[in-house]
Design brief:
Helix content: 10-25%
Number of helices: 10
Number of strands: 13
Shape: globular
Structural class: alpha+beta
Largest sheet: 8 strands, mixed
Order of helices and strands: HHHEHHEEHEEHEEHEEEEHEEH
Bound molecules: ligand MTE
Strand content: 15-25%
CATH topology: Sulfite Oxidase, Chain A, domain 2
CATH architecture: Alpha-Beta Complex
Radius of gyration: 19 Å
């Protein structure tokens, strides 16, 4: 696909590489090519080479599906993290140089307790839980992941957001020296830093978590170390990784994908099998490690818990 680079072309009119890469992933995920590629990520030689995280102490467990867990090897080697490159295998290959400690998170905007908090400050009061959630990517694949984390709402409440805080914006770290993908900018890759946003009620919803680990260990760099969002009823791209800034705002923020390709990626990005991507259907998905496609569930199967937040909204328009 052609990438127009003339300086007088509006960013929104350019076909960015990530766009056609997503398209390519979708096309692959419909056929045998994908089965072979995914078999590749489960290769046992790679398993031996995958680094491990630090063990975490878990106090509670919430399992939201009876579906089998996706192997750790696949979760840690088949990743979307464009800061390390656009191919699924890039993050596992390129993330070793990244240093997730020391780390701090800047809390800004409409709240009583803004400030720069160290990772230790952020994590200390929170007991860690295992949350087994489905993750559904907009490209048409899915996984079942035993995340370790705690409710985002518990963290946000500590900063005492005020009545003007109607949305929360999250920003990923920007470190081009350690993140090879950040040395390429839009339209080759994305504009950095990567940003995401949630409406306040979505952020405070008990299913929304800050994840600090998976499979009982701290997150590897390629999965968003040291802390990331997981919002199980939304397409995977809402689950922003390696967060350094949380900002309480009074207007709906633009997320990175929506900014780049607005007709493809809405703000809400709730998993909705009835609304097609511009170029492909979202009705089915292929679970990583499986061959046949399965039906995608509305809100990724979490509708009984989250649908009421969208009552009265047009979910075709607010995709
Ligand atoms: N966060 C950042 N900072 N950069 C990214 O490229 N990709 C998103 C999301 N969070 C992304 C990100 C997408 S498209 C998906 S599907 C999920 O991360 C994938 O998370 P995983 O690789 O841990 O499975």
């Amino acid at each position: 696909m052609l990438i127009k680079k003339a300086p007088d072309i509006a960013a929104s009119a350019i076909t960015p590489k990530p766009w056609y890469l997503h398209r390519r992933e979708f096309l692959q995920s419909t056929g045998l090519v994908a089965a072979a590629a995914v078999a590749g990520v489960l290769d046992t030689d790679d398993a031996a080479a995958t680094p491990v995280g630090e063990p975490l102490t878990i106090t509670k467990k919430l399992v939201t599906t009876t579906d089998a867990l996706t192997p750790r090897q696949a979760i840690t080697t088949y990743c979307n993290f464009y800061e390390y490159g656009a191919d699924k295998s890039d993050p596992a290959r390129n993330a070793a140089a990244f240093k997730p400690r020391p780390w701090s998170v800047s809390v800004e905007g409409h709240c009583a307790k803004p400030g720069v908090y160290t990772l230790e400050d952020v994590l200390k009061p929170h007991a860690l839980e295992e949350r087994v959630y489905r993750l559904r990517c907009v490209e048409g694949w899915s996984m079942v992941i035993p995340w370790v984390g705690f409710p985002l709402g518990d963290l946000l409440a500590r900063f005492q957001p005020n009545g003007n805080a109607t949305f929360v914006e999250f920003t990923t770290v920007e470190r081009p020296r350690e993140m090879a993908g950040q040395r390429q900018r839009f339209p080759t890759l994305l504009p950095w830093p990567y940003k995401e946003g949630l409406r306040m009620d979505e952020a405070m919803h008990p299913l929304t978590i800050i994840a600090v680990g998976l499979y009982g260990e701290t997150l590897l760099n390629q999965n968003g170390a040291p802390l990331r969002l997981v919002v199980p009823w939304k397409y995977g791209f809402k689950s922003i990784k390696s967060i350094v800034r949380i900002r309480f705002v009074d207007k709906q923020p633009l997320n990175t994908w929506q900014e780049q390709v607005p007709n493809w990626y809405g703000f809400y990005a709730n998993v909705n099998p009835a609304v097609d991507q511009v170029e492909w259907s979202q009705a089915t998905e292929r679970r990583i490690g499986e061959f046949l496609r399965r039906k995608t569930l509305m809100f990724n199967g979490y509708g009984d818990q989250v649908a009421s937040m969208y009552a009265g909204m047009n979910l075709r328009r607010n995709y």
